[in-house]
Protein: DUF5009 domain-containing protein
Organism: Caecibacteroides pullorum
Amino acid sequence: MKGRAYSLDALRGYAILTMVLSATVAGSILPAWMYHAQTPPPTHAFNPELPGLTWVDLVFPFFLFAMGAAFPFSIRKRKEKGESELRLVYDALKRGVQLTFFAIFIQHFYPYMLSSPQDMRAWLLAIACFAVLFPMFMRLPFPLPAWGHTAVKLGAYAVAVVMLLTVNYADGREFSLYTSNIIILLLANMAIFGSIIYLFTMDNKWARIAVLLVLAGIILSSEVEGSWTSTLFGFTPVSWMYRFDYLKYLFIVLPGSLAGDFLLEWMNRRGHEEGEDKNDRKAYAALSLSVAIIVCNLVGLYNRWLHVNLVVNILLLLAGWWLLRKSAGSASLWKELFNMGAFLLLVGLCLEPFQGGIKKDVATFSYFFVTSGLACMALIVFHILCDYFRCQRSTAWLVMSGQNPMIAYVAGDLLVIPVLQMTGVFPLLSYLHSNPWLGFLQGLLLTSLSLLVTIFFTRIKWFWRT
């Protein structure tokens, strides 16, 4: 356990696996709370006027929160080792560009993009895309000089470019920089702007909060036609990669970086302590309260029981404050995370009536604050399980997925489903569309296969990194 916070890996793994699960369950036949709140069954037509929150709406903000929480473990540690700010800014830009390329490349090689109906050519090209991503994003485990690894990486990018420009796409489509995976594209923007903001505010948490206040002012006033904020909001020099509107997700990433600071500070304290006086009862109580707060908000906000939800939240938050008011060791970390999560959650609930209620798309301020607060609670849960009780075997599948999230994200679409299609197994899954339980089982099966692929490559230490 020394030197690593497995709770952060587990949170990231939970987010990425539930992201895969939400995309692979059968459509139309499951209860509405099994899908995004704004795309209810049976038609799944997007309704921007429909407020609410489901577990599916939490998976992406949880991943963004974990991304921000990782900044102290990478940027701060590298800065403390003597790396220059210029080098760290360069690496942030490089990572953003790599993620943007990743977003464009995988989107073009999803089988449905290559043929309609899908055929053997499309499935083989998807698998080829998956294979090319290995030399592109991992350091090959061969005894090569530094220039050799660089040459292999550049060669993989060259192969990818040739594939993008020469492949025939379905329905007369052509290669376009604007055809990209929006989730990865948002992550690319957060990798650039979130990293740079953290770099220059790592020693001043209030400055980080001030950045969010300025950002909120710009976003809110950008609706005034002819204002300088409107001009700034609409300025997109490379619109296929960046839009100012993407920066609103910093309201999740930067609070995540504050949680990462708390987590790193706890690890440093732990390294100087001989031992810890454990209080398992407090741990179980904190875990139960954190889970209860997450479930309460999912049920209350989805069903629009806003008054009841607010009252129950206040009672649960007061119980948590009382429980953790005198804490030491790991419990001191839970106290910091709980207090920050409580503040974010209450702000989000106060903003809930604003902008027509909480919504994922177009994302409201309530959505940012509520999901950030719930992410704090989720991090407490995983910290208690992974870093306090050290349930290593039972959480290893989450941790390994979180350590290799890029593979976990694409393994299903680029490897698992093409192989199932080629072997004739995938069409048999249509028999699972007869009732909600079997429809959910489809998602579990496909997610489990993606998980097994991810675990395999994680065990042999083949990691994709930007």
Summary: Residues 190 and 385 are 28 Å apart (CA to CA). DSSP finds 18 helices and no strands in the chain. The mean pLDDT is 95. The two ends are 25 Å apart (CA to CA).
